Amino acid sequence: MAKGYKDLLAEAEAVVTSVTPAEAAALREDPGVVLVDIRDPRELEREGVIPGAFHAPRGMLEFWIDPESPYHKPVFAEEKTFVFFCAGGLRSLLAAKVAQEMGLKARSMREGFGGWKAAGLPIAEKAARG
C-alpha cells in the first residue's frame, strides 16, 4: 500500500531534530545557522518574513541544494546548520528530512512561521513583486 502524508511525516519526525520558534530565534544570532523559509512567495507577501531568513521555495529545494544542479545556490554548500520553516511546520519537516538525506545539517522549526508570529518574534514585510 502507498504511504500517505502522515506516514511521511512520522518518518521525518523520527530522524529530524525540531526546534521551537524561541529556540530558532536564539539560533538566528549564530553565524553557523541559516534559517530557511520554504513558503511560497505569495505567503511571504501576505504574512511577512523572518528578518535575515533565506528564502528557498519548497519546489526548488532539491535543485538548490545539489551542487551538480544548474540551479544550485552557494549558501547550501556552506558548513552550516539549516533550520527550515514553513507556515505551520509540516512542509519544513519533510524538507529538513530531504536536506539531511542530501548531506546537510538540517533542523525543522515546529509550528513554523505561524508559531513564530504567535510568539511575538520579529517579522518584516515582504514587498510584492512587480
From TrEMBL:
Pfam families hit by this protein: Rhodanese
Domain Rhodanese: from-to ranges: 29-125
One Gene Ontology term of the molecular function aspect: thiosulfate-cyanide sulfurtransferase activity
Highest taxon above the source species: Bacteria
Identification of the protein by name: Rhodanese-like domain-containing protein
Organism: Falsigemmobacter intermedius
